[in-house]
Write a structure and sequence with these properties.
- This protein has three helices and three strands, in the order H-H-E-E-E-H.
- With about 130 residues, it is α+β, with helices and mostly antiparallel strands.
- Among the domains are: about 40 residues, no CATH class; about 40 residues, no CATH class.
- Strands 1-2-3 form a three-stranded antiparallel sheet, with no helix packed on it.
- Strand 1 and strand 2 form a beta hairpin.
């Protein structure tokens, strides 16, 4: 009863039918809602890259973050990401998912612990 604007005190014949059916504010809201639904149903005009990669995982920061080796256009980004953003790599079909700029993967050399200790001792001040 409340959504139609009917008041039990008023006689039913005193109300206009068009006012009972739809309120002016409700009609403008309905037009706006139709525009929003139309906009939401449209597909994006440019393709989006949800996941880029593959990247080589260089190190782990506890159990919540990983450090990856970034190259190319992503070199300016911070190389540490939360584990929740990391997905296992699966070979994609090149016809379905074309790569933007395929970059050759290079495996970084594994450092020997002795070499690392020598470099760290170079930066220490001897007293």
């Amino acid at each position: 009863m409340l959504e139609k604007g009917w008041n039990p005190i008023l006689p039913a014949d005193s109300l206009r039918i068009d006012l009972i059916e739809i309120h002016p504010i409700a009609s403008s809201f309905n037009i706006m809602l139709d525009k929003v639904k139309h906009h939401a149903n449209q597909s994006p005009k440019k393709p989006t890259d949800y996941y880029v990669g593959p990247f080589i995982i260089v190190g782990l920061h506890g159990t919540t973050a990983v450090q990856v080796e970034l190259s190319g256009e992503l070199e300016n980004k911070h190389p540490t990401f939360p584990v929740s953003l990391i997905k296992p790599y699966q070979q994609a079909d090149k016809e379905i998912v074309p790569l933007r700029n395929p970059t050759p993967l290079t495996v970084p050399p594994v450092e020997n612990n002795e070499d690392k200790k020598d470099r760290e001792s170079h930066y220490r001040k001897e007293t």
